[in-house]
Amino acid sequence: MPASPAVATAGSATAGQGTRRRAGRPVGGVLDKGGITEGALGLIEKKGYDGLTMAALARSLNVAPSALYNHVKSKRDVLLLVEDHLASLVDVSAFGAGPWEDAVRKWAWSYRDVFSRHTPLIPVIAVLPVTDAPQTLAMYETVSSGFRDAGFPEERIVSSIVALESFIFGSAYDVTAPADIFDPGTMAEATPSFTGAVRSLAEQGHERPADVAFSLGLEALISGLGGLRG
Amino acid sequence: MPASPAVATAGSATAGQGTRRRAGRPVGGVLDKGGITEGALGLIEKKGYDGLTMAALARSLNVAPSALYNHVKSKRDVLLLVEDHLASLVDVSAFGAGPWEDAVRKWAWSYRDVFSRHTPLIPVIAVLPVTDAPQTLAMYETVSSGFRDAGFPEERIVSSIVALESFIFGSAYDVTAPADIFDPGTMAEATPSFTGAVRSLAEQGHERPADVAFSLGLEALISGLGGLRG
DNA sequence: CTTATAAATGAATGGTATTCATTTAGTGGT
DNA sequence: ACCACTAAATGAATACCATTCATTTATAAG
């Protein structure tokens, strides 16, 4: 059933992303980085990150697993393609269109929301050289430009962004945590202060406790970092 | 060479952690949760998290891989044991022994340092019910008690700790990032603002740029969250 | 001595990413 | 119209990996 080599030629397309091919190349390939990214995203949406295997990805593209390795060096490369695509979904539109505080707020919430649905990528981003991720780099350019215009001293811009980003990544995990994560269980009597604090928060009846913590931390960071401006 | 069942009986010990065994049990086991934790920690130290396989762990305990499954349900259980042990290494000594700001500062730096050497555990902690991690729970008790004594309203204690923790976990990743992670490479001309900001930080010549960002964010959080006290 | 049981074994199982020699099929030059 | 080149596909093989299971061993209790 695995179709003869060029049978599926008609499909996907989405070509022309970056990688200009040299002359003298056949046009038959079903695959390219764009198509692989799309396939991976679709697979993640349907089956989650556990379902994202090289075999499943190849299958969704009607291709043998080994064919993928003509286009990506490793599975990590696939994750990188996905990550960079996600960066383009982060909302940076408020930078340059209003006060710095509002822009950071909008950007941070959007950034957290995007990656809270893709937490398995966070360890990948953390050590990802931006060189390999053009969309991610574009996001940084817009954000750092917004910080500069807001009056940040140049040598503090990157550190401030990194601090915010660290908080954002950590908070993305919180969103996925089970509701009863802080239930002390049988140890409740041994931990009265913590147990009381957990109960008290629960009684507030917030829809999403993770949002309360995120808002609290974000506002603290915004006002604290905002004080660095000249 | 894989020794007859009870040959290594003399070893490890470290018994008595929680799991009281019922009467009528042989004493021959080389393994218990304490021994497994020690073995895993040693392996991580020597070979890193890639080297922590069930086979390698069993080998380091002079036991067959399948034997481990009499004591843990899965590899995730092993990671959990390790995580809980690490929680006991976090320095909470300053709570109750000085101003709240200093206690949080000391705790946060210590917390980040411990987990920056164990980042593969971060995704595990994030969704780990504290019930299964007594040492972790003990840490929370001390910290939340410190927040309470400092005058935090009860319903804000957990959210404040979560916000700090999120920042700490995200920052732990930064420590492990390669030095050139922000090198824009060939895209430098396309991203003048970001490139300038990166250069400017580099010229400051900080030993560990991650520490600058962490300090910046932590101080912002401390002063922002500190304002919640009654 | 018998019986029950925790704890060990080793052989399988099913899944994983990745490599490699080989084949296919377009493209440009002659 | 042929040829040489090469990107891109194949499928079989490799080396791990966590996990399961029927079986065996060794101790402790009655």
UniProtKB/TrEMBL annotation, chains A, B:
GO molecular function: DNA-binding transcription factor activity; transcription cis-regulatory region binding
Domain of life per record: Bacteria
Region ranges (Disordered): 1-30
UniProt keyword annotations, A-Z: DNA-binding, Repressor, Transcription, Transcription regulation
HTH tetR-type domain residues: 30-90
Family matches, as InterPro entries: Homeodomain-like_sf, HTH-type_TetR-like_transc_reg, HTH_TetR, Repressor_TetR_C, Tet_transcr_reg_TetR, Tet_transcr_reg_TetR-rel_C_sf
Pfam families, sorted: TetR_C_1 (PF02909), TetR_N (PF00440)
Residue spans of biased composition, Low complexity class: 1-18
Biological process, per Gene Ontology: negative regulation of DNA-templated transcription; response to antibiotic
DNA-binding region: 53-72
Name of the molecule in the record: TetR/AcrR family transcriptional regulator C-terminal domain-containing protein
Organism: Arthrobacter sp. K5
